Amino acid sequence: MKQLFWIAVGVGLSVLVVVKGREYLAKVTPKGFTDEVVAQGQGIVTRVREFVADINSGMNEREAELRDALGMDEPAPRRAR
């Protein structure tokens, strides 16, 4: 029974080493490295877009508050950017 246990442990560790080794090799190959850089770049672009959207939203809310506080009825014309 002990031998079967140790064989099972050895097989399990072997499978783990092979799977993790393949993942590691996939990351350090040129294609894997390129894929990782592209994914990180896309993440940064997404965060920057969300940040800009939050800034614009806050700016529009504050402008509406100021217009209401100053009694201005019609909004100012939007400037082309």
Structural class by SSE content: mainly alpha
Number of helices: 2
Order of helices and strands: HH
* Radius of gyration over C-alpha positions, nearest whole angstrom: 28 Å
Termini separation? 76 Å
Main beta-sheet annotation: none
Query: In which range does the helix fraction lie?
Result: over 70%
Strand percentage lies at: under 5%
Number of strands: 0
Shape, per Cα inertia axes = elongated
Oligomer: single chain
Residue stretches low in confidence (pLDDT < 50, at least 5 long) are none
Mean pLDDT: 90
List its salient traits.
81 residues, mainly alpha, 84% helix, elongated
Q: Any overview of this molecule?
A:
- Helix 1 packs across helix 2 (30-70).
- Helix content is 84%, strand content 0%.
- It has helices at residues 2-28, 30-70.
- The model has no long low-confidence stretch (mean pLDDT 90).
- The protein is built from two helices and no strands.
- The longest helix has 41 residues, at 30-70.
- The chain is an all-alpha fold.
Write the layout of secondary structure elements.
Layout: H1 2-28, H2 30-70
Helix pairs in contact: 1-2
Short description:
This protein is mainly α and 81 residues long.
